[in-house]
Amino acid sequence: MVHQTPFNYEFHKFLRQVVGVAPADRHLYVATESDFQKAGNITFPYRSYFYALGLMHEDRCRIRVGIQDFDVPKQALTVIGPGITRLWLENNWAVRNTTLFFTPDLFSAPFSSSFLLSYPFFGSGAQHVIVLSDEQYARANAFIALIQQYVAMPKIAAGLLFSFLEYLLGIYPDSANSVLPGMSNRLVRQFSQLLHTHFQEQKEVGFYADQLNVSARHLSELLKQETGKSAKQSIEDFVLFEARSLLKQTDLSIKEIVYWLGYDDPSYFTRLFRSKTGCTPMEYRA
């Protein structure tokens, strides 16, 4: 069976493979729909190793990040940090959008090397889609247009991007309550954050319920109400979401992936994967 070359979405490789450009020695790229149409859609869950801010100017699409599904309507901003797996459930790559891709290397002194990690919207379990008011959309659009003008001058672009992130931080708490109100439930977000951190070694509902100081039954009922899935289903689906990314994006063997995900029995994992996807891990990878 022929094995595909893995889709390693490090910053510059992502720009070459997905956006269709190769800006050497740059740590910021501003993409539009014309860029995305060059390389086509991504049809599997994928993890990238940089930051992304995408502003939707029209139409609507839908994205899954971890256990959460988000509508992305007109005037919405999608915000995703590095290492977070996502899947475009519904997407029209010709829809008008402006997306900033950047790495921490864009920021030199006086910025600290880790300040980006302090923004809550870049972390796991965040509200990754922020629906903006007309005024907020106009300001976000103005920030992005200004950043785009200074892409070739990284120190100025970094300062402008920092100002934009600070603006987003100021509006984030209010905006987070305006998209998928049920998903704004603090317990669901805390569960999502815990799952992202512990899924390799903890797959029992009881562990997460204990961490959240609720009963396993209450946690499962809440998740079912807010996401349509029980706690057990959410855990299994999240692990398989990560597995699908690893199968497409790494050269790890099936056995290595199974052990990395925290399973001891590859045959059990293969049965679970087939029951959820309709194919074996090897068939999915091909």
Overview of this protein structure:
The protein has 286 residues and is of the alpha+beta class. It has two domains: 7-176, Sandwich (Jelly Rolls), CATH 2.60.120; 183-285, Arc Repressor Mutant, subunit A. The chain is 45% helix and 15% strand. The chain is built from eleven helices and nine strands. It has helices at residues 11-19, 33-36, 134-149, 154-176, 186-198, 205-212, 216-227, 231-249, 254-260, 266-277, 281-285; strands spanning 28-32, 46-47, 51-56, 61-65, 68-72, 76-80, 85-90, 97-102, 129-131. The strands form two sheets. Strands 1-8-3-6-9 form a five-stranded antiparallel sheet, sandwiched between helices. Strand 4 and strand 5 (68-72) form a beta hairpin. Helix 6 crosses helix 7. The longest helix has 23 residues, at 154-176. It is globular, with a radius of gyration of 19 Å. Residues 1-5 and 174-184 have low confidence and may be disordered. It comes from Fibrisoma montanum. Residues 189-286 form the HTH araC/xylS-type domain.
